[in-house]
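hiii so um. not sure if this is the right channel but i have a protein structure encoded as tokens and i wanna go backwards to a sequence. like what aa goes where. can anyone help
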């Protein structure tokens, strides 16, 4: 990948678009796949608060883990040849694949995996999965291909949780702007605020990528992103943000529109530590004052899904809870009165500055005015959101899209940014992780899901649709939005 290639992409985005070529029958194994996205990483280290964009670009492409969450939602071995657990479930022994090398040329060893796990669990780590690995009490490396992990308690989700631990060369130091992974691509160049380029790694241990290079071009405006696809400046939009834009692509033979399963939830999160959001009746009142069906239709038309909790249908512990705190303005007013807020109250809603959050904020502002609640909208950037909300917990309420897969566990962590703390839920989630069978785990997490919904711990507005649009000559891309990952290595392009 050369600087010239990125400059060419930038020229196209400036408006000098290449003409659409006639589609050939054969795929070009050295093709450049141009991906348009709204989610540029804040840095390149997923333990340093890089945001969802790093998962989209790097997960499975540049970095790999012992296990991989597939696009279909299953967990499969990746860098692991085999593994076994002791009878008491407290010791796991992993045998690594042979012949795996990092992009720097160094061989993968058990010491690298140990280093990578410890990066995620370190005190300074900002990984959202840090707590999920807290039962690890020891990691031993008896030889280069053997890793032994000991636990303080059973962890039925250990293989799943290890799929979030990217294996990094233990010789690597600061990887916020560099990388040394084992994936099918290596980093060619990152131009902050513009584009990130990956090139096929010829020394890859597995099946080589079906294309020669991938360029992620970043946009701050959905309309500009759509125009880039229309003018042949990008080949794929990983996640369409508005149904209005689909009319430009649906029914047009030059494009393919695919709808898959999403795990991205639009959430009105309260700071449950502070009044009045420490009051369950207040939270339930706001839930009942929200016409979610009208909101979803105004944003997505016929797309998207209403959800009554934080759990999407792709999670095993999903149950339909849309009837809990269903839309009822009179009931909302009555609950506020019972809570001591008959005349309403006022709060500040910190809102990320990108779509659809500002529109959602205005909708909620109008809805809550009907029950006497005044919403002051404070628009902030993604970086400000991370510092003010996620790190400092300095907020009353906020909007955010949560992309993580199987993330009900965050409600079992009272230290998480929203501060929800129900001891019964904390215990259920802990007991589910220590379960001796998947059936027991599902039973306990289903119970926790119901309690969280009854507590109106947050206001779960809707589940995003996952709509991928591509040029018709591009195939092989993932269609689901699980955890915001987007595997690029199977994408093919006819030219």
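sure thing!! here u go:
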């Amino acid at each position: 990948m050369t600087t010239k290639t990125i400059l060419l992409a930038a020229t196209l985005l400036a408006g000098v678009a290449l003409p659409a070529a006639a589609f050939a029958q054969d795929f070009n194994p050295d093709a450049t796949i141009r991906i348009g996205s709204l989610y540029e990483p804040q840095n390149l280290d997923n333990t340093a608060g890089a945001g969802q964009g790093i998962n989209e670009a790097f997960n499975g492409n540049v970095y790999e883990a012992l296990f991989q969450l597939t696009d279909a939602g299953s967990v499969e071995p990746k860098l692991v040849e085999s593994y076994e657990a002791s009878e008491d479930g407290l010791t796991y022994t992993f045998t690594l694949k042979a012949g795996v090398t990092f992009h720097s040329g160094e061989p993968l060893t058990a010491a690298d995996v140990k280093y990578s796990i410890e990066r995620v669990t370190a005190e300074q780590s900002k990984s959202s999965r840090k707590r999920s690995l807290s039962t690890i009490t020891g990691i031993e490396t008896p030889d280069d291909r053997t890793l032994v992990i000991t636990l303080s308690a059973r962890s039925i989700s250990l293989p799943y949780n290890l799929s979030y631990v990217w294996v990094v060369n233990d010789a690597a130091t600061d990887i916020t702007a560099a990388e040394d992974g084992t994936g099918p691509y290596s980093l060619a160049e990152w131009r902050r605020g513009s584009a990130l380029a990956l090139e096929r790694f010829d020394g890859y241990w597995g099946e080589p990528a079906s294309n020669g290079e991938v360029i992620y071009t970043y946009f701050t405006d959905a309309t500009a992103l759509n125009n880039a696809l229309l003018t042949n400046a990008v080949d794929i939009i990983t996640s369409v943000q508005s149904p209005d834009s689909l009319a430009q692509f649906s029914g047009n033979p030059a494009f393919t529109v695919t709808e898959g399963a999403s795990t991205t939830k639009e959430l009105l999160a309260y700071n449950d530590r502070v009044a009045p959001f420490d009051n369950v009746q207040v939270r339930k009142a706001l839930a009942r004052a929200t016409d979610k069906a009208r909101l979803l239709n105004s944003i997505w038309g016929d797309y998207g899904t209403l959800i009554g909790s934080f759990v999407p249908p792709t999670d095993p512990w999903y149950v339909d809870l849309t009837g809990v705190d269903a839309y009822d303005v009179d009931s909302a007013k009555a609950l506020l009165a019972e809570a001591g807020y008959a005349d309403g109250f006022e709060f500040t809603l910190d809102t990320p500055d990108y779509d659809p959050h500002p529109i959602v904020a205005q909708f909620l502002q109008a809805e809550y005015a009907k029950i006497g609640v005044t919403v002051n909208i404070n628009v902030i950037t993604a970086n400000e959101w991370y510092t003010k909300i996620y790190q400092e917990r300095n907020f009353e309420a906020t909007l955010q899209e949560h992309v993580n897969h199987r993330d009900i566990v965050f409600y079992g962590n009272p230290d998480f940014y929203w501060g929800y703390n129900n001891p019964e839920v904390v215990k259920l989630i802990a007991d589910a992780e220590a379960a001796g069978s998947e059936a027991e785990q599902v039973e306990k997490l289903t119970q926790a899901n119901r309690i969280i919904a009854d507590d109106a711990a947050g206001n779960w507005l809707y589940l995003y649709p996952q709509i991928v649009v591509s040029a018709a000559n591009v195939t092989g891309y993932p269609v689901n939005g699980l955890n915001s990952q987007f595997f690029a290595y199977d994408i093919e392009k006819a030219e």
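oh and Confidence is low (pLDDT under 50) at residues 1-24.
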